[in-house]
Each structure stands twice: as structure tokens, then as C-alpha cells.
Write a structure and sequence with these properties.
This protein folds into two domains: 226 residues, Alanine racemase (TIM Barrel, Alpha-Beta Barrel), CATH 3.20.20; 138 residues, Lyase, Ornithine Decarboxylase, Chain A, domain 1. Helix content is 29%, strand content 24%. It has twelve helices and 20 strands. The longest helix has 19 residues. The termini are far apart. The chain binds ligand LLP. Ligand LLP binds next to helix 10. Specifically catalyzes the decarboxylation of meso-diaminopimelate (meso-DAP) to L-lysine. It comes from Pseudaquabacterium terrae.
Length: 415
Amino acid sequence: MNPFDPTLLRQLAATHGTPLWVYDAATIRARIAELRAFDTIRYAQKANSNLHLLRLMREAGVVVDAVSLGEIERALAAGYRPSREGRSEIVFTADVLDRATLAKVVAEGIPVNAGSIDMLHQLGTASPGHRVWLRINPGFGHGHSNKTNTGGEHSKHGIWHADLPAALDALRKHRLQLIGLHMHIGSGVDYHHLQQVCDAMVEMVARIGQPIEAISAGGGLSIPYRAGEPRIDTAHYHALWDAARRRIAQAQGRPLQLEIEPGRFLVAEAGVLLAEVRATKSMGSRFFALVDAGFNDLARPALYGSHHGIELLAADASPRAPRPTVVAGPLCESGDVFTQGEGGVVLSRELPEARVGDLLVFHDAGAYGASMSSNYNSRPLTAEVLVDGDAARLIRRRQSIGELLALEALQQTQS
Ligand code: LLP
């Protein structure tokens, strides 16, 4: 699905330059609406933590997950409070508590979703009585690639299911208050694993031996990156989790809340990366279009072999025959190719013949795009624009090279 009008994208590129991230507020709101059956939608902001998107989420009644001190500060800056009207607006989810983050969650009273027993001891020592979730690794996982599989014995995430008694001992020792259990076994949904994880949740809660307030289904809801891929059936997804919730409520004789923690689902389809073709060349039988965005901007193809739809917006009306094209970036590294499969195999994509000055639109780039960008090759972070109805606002200006260099200025020291 493409929420963007080519004329608008051309205008935005002319106004703000390229590369440029462009997001559509209406698409985000539509995805939020699809998940309203859940009691709580907790946005995994690692997917895209721009403050203005966080504010949009907050206005739509979505709470937030944070995985670092920086993400906690972003949530606070966007107006989230650790707890408001009895619900935790910010939860810190991680497998380690670095010292600065520990001090922050204690000072602000931010509930912690603990992925290791060491976290429970460190938190409990600093803040007896703190509110916690337990993130459980049920012993299996799945993901769109091995790097996004977050369950099973090869994953570093969560408290191993058989270690639940030790986690409960740590809670008792420090009088930590248990909010509930959380499971996130990977990104990308398959219904077989979903039923398995729902069953594992019911079984783990039964082992706790005390009522809990909530369960969290984690994130991982997929989106169709390729044309023709099916969309996830959110009603079915909710129904499976709701059935688990009802089984738990019946067993503990008390109702409980059902949370979901999506990142990608809320923002991926709402964002594109715009880049300009700056050179074309043929290498033997291959035709290359080289653009001004690289894997420092959009890392997913280079990192996971991920597929993003690519659309060409021609700079002129001249006829363009279709041509298999390798789309690559400006970085001084051979892996800087957007059309690649898993393992780095270079692929061609059939596009109208690209010419210098054309724009390429990388679709479904709103999640894990800007948030995974880097300064590799000393390239500044790219600007971001949010389109909301008729208004297009610059929600992050382009970083300047001066800002990059300033970080390395030597401090004046007093002798
Ligand atoms: N909750 C937890 C505890 C997570 O670790 C994650 C993602 C999410 C929720 C959100 O998952 P989502 O709904 O977005 O699939 N960079 C990779 C994805 C890494 C996901 C890490 N954890 C990518 O570009 O596909």
C-alpha cells in the first residue's frame, strides 16, 4: 500500500533535499485503530523513536516501551509519565540494566520488564518494592531472520522458562511487585508459534502461584514487504491471545489486562526513504543505479537481506523501458546494495530505466529505518518529514557535518 502521492514526494525532495525520510500520520493512526481490541497498545519505539511520532502515539492513547536511557528520555520528552491513572505509560524492557539507566528507572519509578535475574537483584537492591514484569524465554522462537529470533536457547533474551522459580525468589527477596509476564519470541508472525506461545504463557502463569495484573504478547506483528504477501489477521491474532487471557483469568479468579507491544506494524508502512539517482553504469551484464542514500541510512537490506519495494519517480517524461537494475548507495563498501538477498547475494530489480536526477522511493521503511541509521563514512543523519493531512512538517532537521566534528573537539582543560 502506498500512502504517498508522487507529486508530493517530488516537492518534499525539492524542498528538503535527499536522502529524506517521509512519514504519513494517517497510516499510523489506521494501524493503531486495527489493534484497539487489546487493552493496552505499547509501542516498541525502537522501530522509530522520533519525538513527533511518539507524541502522535500518545495522543492516540498508545503507551510506550523503552529499551535504553535514551528511549526513556524520549518518552519523557514526548509527555509520557511513568504512571498515570494507574497504568504504566513507560516500561523499560531489557536484559541488562546499565548503571545510568538503573538510576533513572529508580528515580522516575519506571516499571522494569526484566530479561535476567541479575536485573531483578540489582533493581531490588536499589529500589525494594519496585514494579516489574518478567520477560520469559519459553524455550522456542522464530523471526524473519536469525537476527530477529528472540526465543530459544540460542537467544540472549528473557529469563529461561525453567528459571522462573529463581526469578520468583528474587522478587520475594526484594519485595518486588509483579505486574505480569511478557513473551516476545521474534519478529514476523506465524500462527503455529503463536498458539504455542499462548499456551506457554498460560502454563507459566499457572506456575507463579499468585494472581497477576497483566500479560504482554510482545511485538512481532509482520507487514507485507513484498507485493502479494498476506496481511496479518489482527482479529485472529487478538482472539488467540484473548483466549489465553481468559484461561488465566479463570484459573486465578481475577481479570487481567492484555497488552501488545508492536513496533514495525504501527510504522513500517507509514514511511518511505527518498533518494536521488546520482550515477548509472553498466558492469558487464549488470546495470547499476547509484543513489545518494546508503546502508548507513537504511540498513535492513545489508543487514538481513530484507526486501523493500522500490519505485522510480522519473525526473522527466522521456520513455523508460523496463531494465533489471542493481540499486546501490554511495558508501565505500561493496555491501552497500539495496537489492540484495540473504547472505549478501546481489540481485537486480526490474525498474523503468533509471537516469541521473530521478528519485527512488524505498517503501515500508518507517520501521527500523531512521532508528537504525549511523554516521558511517561520516555521513550526517538524514532529515525526517511527517505528512499529516495537508501539512508536511520537518520533524528532524538534517544533521550537519559541523555537528559531527564538534563531538570530537578537544575540551579545554585547566592545568
Ligand atoms: N518487543 C520486544 C521485546 C522486542 O525486542 C521487539 C523487537 C519488539 C517488541 C518489536 O518488534 P516488532 O513488532 O517491531 O517486530 N531491526 C529488525 C527488527 C529487530 C526487532 C528487535 N526487537 C528489523 O529491521 O527487522
